[in-house]
TrEMBL record:
Domain of life, per lineage: Bacteria
Gene3D superfamilies referenced in this protein's UniProt entry, alphabetically: 1.10.530.10, Bacterial muramidase
Keyword Signal: yes
Pfam families, sorted: SLT_2 (PF13406)
GO molecular function: peptidoglycan lytic transglycosylase activity
GO BP term (any one): peptidoglycan catabolic process
Stretches assigned to the Transglycosylase SLT domain: 37-232
Signal peptide: 1-19
Keywords: Signal
Highest classification ranks of the organism: Bacteria, Pseudomonadati, Pseudomonadota, Alphaproteobacteria, Hyphomicrobiales
Protein name, per record: Membrane-bound lytic murein transglycosylase B
Organism of provenance: Bradyrhizobium lablabi
Length: 271
């Protein structure tokens, strides 16, 4: 009886291993150049259909092109390796703070509403808005779906962007985005630059509208542990929520610093 159970268990484990190997073999294979992109799209489309992606999403996927500019940008994010001083200068922190203080006053009712609902003060939201798109002036002109599909195909971060691609296809199926939606180099869209998966989870309305984007950003921060009234500088309770927004340490510190300057009303950017 024990021997029979051992044989059955061994047979099951062998089947499971073969099933896993088959899954990996059948999965769309990542690549490192444009050469395999068209074949990958066909493979991925089959997987997407099996996961419930509809005709609109599949049709949009098949229209995508390999985004060489996205790959170049992904390989060349040198600004995140700068010192804080250098990063602030490169990103125009003084200008962001000055404009941010003005917007905090002129749109006081909007920011008061956001703070009441999500507990997030104006400073960090305005800092993110200014840092990401220059307050909406630089939202990018890259085809969103091509950028995300290219990064899902590229072996460097395939797993992460595969999730983003499935989210983008869901949004297209729902009519929330289209095959022609434009965004930044990595597929981020809107006034504060949301990737598709975060749009699904935290987006509130059309993110090209500033009020919607700012509410969505506050919604993201609250979902990642933001506590009303707590500090958001490094070492304080809410800094972790800023870290969740962007993984680059110099970016996180810059947002905290500029947010404090906007909220506090001090003079020039200080460190």
């Amino acid at each position: 009886m024990i021997r029979g159970r051992e044989i059955a268990t061994a047979a099951f484990m062998a089947w499971a291993v073969l099933a896993c190997l088959g899954t990996k073999a059948d999965a769309a294979q990542c690549g490192s150049s444009a050469a395999g992109f068209e074949a990958w799209k066909g493979q991925f489309a089959g997987e997407a259909r099996a996961k419930g992606v509809g005709g609109s999403g599949i049709a949009a996927l098949m229209q995508t092109n390999y985004a060489a500019a996205t790959i170049a940008a992904d390989r060349g994010q040198r600004s995140f390796g700068l010192s804080l001083d250098q990063f602030l200068a490169k990103r125009g922190a003084s200008t962001i703070v000055a404009r941010g203080r003005s917007l905090k006053q002129s749109q006081a009712a909007l920011f008061a509403s956001i703070q009441q609902r999500y507990g997030v003060p104006p400073g960090p939201l305005i800092a993110i808005w200014g840092m990401e798109t220059g307050f909406g002036s630089q939202r990018g002109n890259q085809n969103m779906l091509s950028a995300v599909a290219t990064l899902a195909y590229d072996c460097r971060r395939s797993e992460y962007f595969t999730e983003q691609l499935y989210a983008a296809l869901q949004l297209i199926d729902r009519g929330a985005l289209s095959a022609s939606t434009r965004g930044s180099m990595h597929g981020e869209i809107g006034q504060t630059q949301f990737l598709p998966k975060n749009i699904l989870a935290y987006g509130t309305g059309n993110l090209d509208v500033a009020a919607n984007a700012l509410n969505s950003t506050a919604n993201f921060l609250k979902a990642h542990g933001w506590r009303a009234g707590a500090g958001y500088q490094p070492g304080e309770a809410n800094f972790a929520a800023i870290q969740a927004w962007n993984a680059a340490q110099v970016y996180q510190r810059a947002i905290a610093l500029m947010g404090r300057q906007i909220d506090g009303g001090e003079g020039a950017v200080e460190r």
